[in-house]
Design goal:
about 280 residues; about 75% helix; about 0% strand
């Protein structure tokens, strides 16, 4: 009985040793295969995609430029006369910043700095509009002020209605099985989302800027157009890195950059090149 038990233990030990050896060999071969696969894979950048492909980088740069626009409005209200305020551009900037404050909240990645600066710009531009209307009233242009107030009220009401009613209209049309209409309504950056209307507000800015291409340079705000030029530059790239990708936003920022840079260049030339005294003058 003792011998039988010893023989059984010996056979069990032999099986265990064989199993252990086989397991070690398998693990060793698996480790080698893993190492080979890792060697074949291209090296990855542990620090992230880099600044050129970083939505956070371009979003921060765009927010800084947008803060410059808000700062320009505050600067102008403190140091510039009311006569330089554009009654074409100011209401458009108010609508534009309202839409982009919403866009910065819903876009991915969320851009809180951009949202805060657009809220500040709405307040600053509202103050600028108040100053411009008071200036017109004090100079006997009451009819123009009334007409302007009506236009602002209508445009603002339509904008608010679009923001509030857009999601509901999108939901109804998306589920109505209307073919291409339902597909367009359901699109991530379709006409019932702020991803569409925020870029459209920049179309209005570019249009307002182009309507004033021959605006007298003494009525051009250098800080405002410097900020708009920078905004157009940074958002051209930023629009291609956010989710959803916004090609409309990219295109309108190209237009914004070109139109704003035109005014910016005219102002620089008028104030610092043409207006510079010649060498013989004291």
């Amino acid at each position: 009985m003792v011998l039988g038990r010893s023989s059984a233990v010996g056979r069990f030990s032999g099986i265990a040793n064989t199993t252990t050896t086989t397991t070690k060999r398998y693990l060793s071969e698996a480790s080698k295969e893993t190492a080979k696969k890792a060697a074949k894979k291209p090296a990855t950048n542990a620090e992230g995609p880099g600044w050129w492909k970083s939505a956070e980088f371009w979003g921060a740069a765009g927010a800084i430029a947008a803060w410059g626009m808000s700062g320009a409005a505050i600067y102008d209200s403190a140091l510039q006369g009311s006569e330089v305020i554009s009654l074409t551009m100011t209401p458009v900037l108010m609508v534009y910043s309202s839409l982009f404050a919403r866009w910065a909240w819903v876009v991915k990645p969320r851009n809180l700095s951009l949202m805060y600066c657009h809220i500040a710009n709405v307040l600053a531009q509202t103050n600028q509009l108040r100053r411009a209307l008071e200036y017109k009233m004090n100079n006997g242009e009451e009819e123009q002020v009334k007409e302007m107030a009506q236009q602002v009220g209508i445009f603002g009401g339509l904008t608010a209605a679009a923001i509030v009613g857009g999601p509901s209209a999108r939901s109804v049309l998306s589920g109505a099985n209307l073919g291409i209409i339902s597909s367009v309504a359901a699109a991530d950056a379709g006409p019932f989302t702020v991803h569409f209307w925020a870029p459209m507000s920049k179309v209005f800015i570019s249009g307002a800027s182009m309507m004033d291409l021959n605006r007298p340079t003494d009525k051009i705000s250098l800080p405002q157009y410097a900020a708009l030029t920078a905004t157009g530059f940074f958002f051209t790239r930023y629009a291609l890195l956010v989710t959803p990708i916004n090609y409309t936003l990219c295109a309108v920022n190209v237009a914004l950059f070109l139109s704003s840079f035109w005014h910016f260049g005219r102002k620089i030339k008028a104030d610092f090149v043409d207006g510079k005294p010649s060498g013989g003058e004291q």
